[in-house]
Amino acid sequence: MKDTNNVETRERIVTTAARLVSQRGRRHVRVVDVAKSSHVAAPTIYYYFGSFERLMSEAQELVYQQLSAPLKASLAQAESALERGDEESFWDVIGSHLESAWRSGQQGRESSVAKVLTGVLASDETTAKFEQMIDETYARWSQMMQQGQRLGWVREDADVEALIAIFWSSSVGQAFLGGDRMRALHAPRVRETFLAMSRAKKAVTD
Question: Which of the residues 46, 95, 97, 139 could staple to 74 if both were Cys, CB 3.0 to 4.6 A apart?
Answer without folding.
Answer: 97
